[in-house]
């Protein structure tokens, strides 16, 4: 899962996505696999397939892409985050940071939305996380549980014990960002 972009396709929901390939490109199979995954996850995108073109931009398609890219804007702040990772090495998307996994190298996902003074969060394989929204919140609904936020801190740390979420950071020895284990840390160095 470390380098397979298909596993991370859902993260494309967090930004404008333009998907281009020439139909004669030797890599068109990778485009087709990604297109299939983007469709399965209902990820919005603009897909352009240039006819009769190999691994290069067709001038008309390039002009269309440049025009549409110029109009596309990734908002500085987003109220919704859909984030998937398999490792704590890449653990942050916008205002959500995963600081612990229940099981390493397994699909780990967070869907979070911010409205008024409330955050709604659903998680998969998450043991700990931090939320750092741009505005103050008073309530967090996470995995069917309601937590009241009394602090005005911009960083909200949370941990899961079994099925129960509480505020705070995990203690003890756990894999964490920058300390994922000897093999991964030896191969990839410090974060």
Describe what you observe in this structure.
With 191 residues, the protein is an alpha+beta fold. The chain has helices at residues 28-40, 59-71, 182-188, and strands spanning 18-22, 46-50, 80-85, 92-93, 96-101, 108-115, 118-124, 126-131, 139-142, 145-148, 156-161, 164-167. The longest helix has 13 residues, at 28-40.
Secondary-structure blueprint of this entry?
Layout (H helix, E strand, L loop, with lengths): L17 E5 L5 H13 L5 E5 L8 H13 L8 E6 L6 E2 L2 E6 L6 E8 L2 E7 L1 E6 L7 E4 L2 E4 L7 E6 L2 E4 L14 H7 L3
Parallel strand pairs: 1-2, 7-9
Antiparallel strand pairs: 3-6, 4-5, 5-8, 6-7, 8-11, 9-10, 11-12
Overview features:
191 residues; alpha+beta; globular; 5-stranded mixed β-sheet; single chain; 3 helices
Which segments are poorly predicted (pLDDT under 50) over 5 or more consecutive residues?
none
Overall shape: globular
**Spatial separation of the terminal alpha carbons:** 18 Å
**Spatial arrangement of strands, main beta sheet:** 3-6-7-9-10
What percentage of amino acids are in beta strands? 25-35%
Mean pLDDT: 90
| Total count of strands | 12
Report the C-alpha radius of gyration, rounded.
20 Å
Helical coverage, percent range: 10-25%
Main sheet? 5 strands, mixed
Number of helices: 3
């Amino acid at each position: 899962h470390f380098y397979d972009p298909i596993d991370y396709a859902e993260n494309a929901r967090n930004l404008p996505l333009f998907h281009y390939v020439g139909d004669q490109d030797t890599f068109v199979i990778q485009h087709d696999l990604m297109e299939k995954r983007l469709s399965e996850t209902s990820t919005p995108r603009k897909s352009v397939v240039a006819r009769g073109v190999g691994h290069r931009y067709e001038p008309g398609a390039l002009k269309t892409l440049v025009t549409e890219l110029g109009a596309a804007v990734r908002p500085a702040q987003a109220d919704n985050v859909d984030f998937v990772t398999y490792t704590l090495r890449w653990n942050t998307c916008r205002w959500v940071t995963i600081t612990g996994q229940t099981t390493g190298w397994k699909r780990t996902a967070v869907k979070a939305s911010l409205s008024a003074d409330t955050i709604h969060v659903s998680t998969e394989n998450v043991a700990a996380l931090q939320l750092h929204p741009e505005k103050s919140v008073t309530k967090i609904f996470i995995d069917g549980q309601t937590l009241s936020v009394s602090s005005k801190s911009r960083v909200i740390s949370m941990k899961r014990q079994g099925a129960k979420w509480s505020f705070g950071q995990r203690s003890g020895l756990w894999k964490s960002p920058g300390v994922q284990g000897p093999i991964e840390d030896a191969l990839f160095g410090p974060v």
